[in-house]
Amino acid sequence: MKKVLFYGDSNVYGYDPRGMMGGRLPETERWTDILAKKMYGEWRVFSDGMNGRVIPDNAYSLLSLDKSVLEYSPLDLFAVMLGTNDLINMSVPDAETVASKMRDFIERQLDRTEFIDNKTGFLLISPPGILPHMDEHLEEAEAQRKRFTSELDIIAQEVGIFFADASEWDLDMSFDGIHMSAEGHALFAEKMADILSKIDLTAERHEVDDYVCAYLA
After folding, report:
1. What is the DSSP string of 103-169?
2. Can you tell me the distance from the alpha carbon of 32 to that of 121, in angstroms, rounded to the nearest whole number?
């Protein structure tokens, strides 16, 4: 079976904001676990999701990923969905700054020895949209999130990796407007199963002018 690692924040972890201190959706409602059951026999699905995670930009913040890569290698596909926390944590959300962090992160991972040796494919996922609920800061974060999605599209094309835009999937969100509801997780799993069923990992990454980018939304 092929193996995929999904690396991301609380929407990969399966955070559930309904409790007083928050919590986690049960396995039966998390998109990663739903996906694992859907793809059983074709893909083994692994995840490394952490609440509050931003795009790593130093060795310390990469420790969890280093551990996951060592544990699950060889990987056929590495998928990353990050950026929401970067935007909402900024006093003035700025898509270009966050996109620059993502570009640096992706380029460093493309040079990772384990990924090079295993010819691991890459999937860059633009995160779900933010529902502001009349919150001015979240309104600005969502406006910048849309720009961020466009920037991720460009990055994927320029480095020649797969791209999917989860904000186009009409995902149901929890009351906080940031985390997917159980219904959102179910639909996310359905969309991702379709992507994994169709993704062509036989294509090799070439020069910048010869893209291996697939629009998978």
Report:
1. HHHHHHHHT-HHHHHHT-EEEEEEPPP---TT-HHHHHHHHHHHHHHHHHHHHHHHHT-EEEEGGGS
2. 18
CA pair distance 3, 14, nearest whole angstrom: 20
Q: Round to whole Å and give the CA distance between 151 and 37.
A: 32
Q: At what angle do helices 182-198 and 31-38 cross, to 10 degrees?
A: 40
What average pLDDT values come out for the chain (217 residues) when binned by 10 residues?
Answer: 97 90 90 98 97 94 94 97 98 97 97 95 97 91 97 96 96 96 98 95 54 42
Distance CA 87, CA 83 (A): 6
Longest Cα–Cα distance in the chain? 51
What is the Cα–Cα distance from 122 to 151, expressed in whole angstroms?
17
**Which residue(s) pair with 126 in the sheet?**
165
Q: To 10 degrees, what angle do helices 95-110 and 136-159 make?
A: 40
d(CA 144, CA 114): 33
**pTM of the entire structure?**
0.92
